[in-house]
Amino acid sequence: MNATHLHLLITHLPIFGSIFGGFVLAHGIWTSSKQTKVAAYNLFILSSIGAVVAYLTGESAEESVEHLQGVLEGNIKAHEDFALYALVGLIALGVSAIAGLIVTLRQSVYTRTVAYMILILSLSSFILVARTGYLGGQIRHTELNTTNTEVTTDKDSD
Fold this sequence. Notes:
Blueprint: H1 3-10, H2 12-31, H3 34-65, H4 73-105, H5 111-140
Helix pairs in contact: 1-3, 2-3, 2-5, 3-4, 4-5
């Protein structure tokens, strides 16, 4: 396994971890379950680590595809530029999750408030990382780029 394989494999962790962690945290808030909130925070921390690994392996992945036929430099650049926003969002989520763990385990009066703040941050981070994933998918999955695809039907050929 090389850095490109690792990049493609690990990029899904922050996407799914941030949204699933959000669902788990929402359930933990709703049921007032300390263990469920802790599980969500652990998911967020893993997602944050995954985002760092994905970002660090991105350059190697770029080098392995930038010279392939059909790969547009603009798609790589858009993905790379937006990835920085996703990285910052996921790092903020990971750091906040560590704070949430501490507050929750100490049974602070701020546990619920912090959990709500982290839930909002997780949804924001999901939006950023999902957009980054979409842009990354356009690098090799040209079918995702609907602006350049023309659909013809039998009626159009008349």
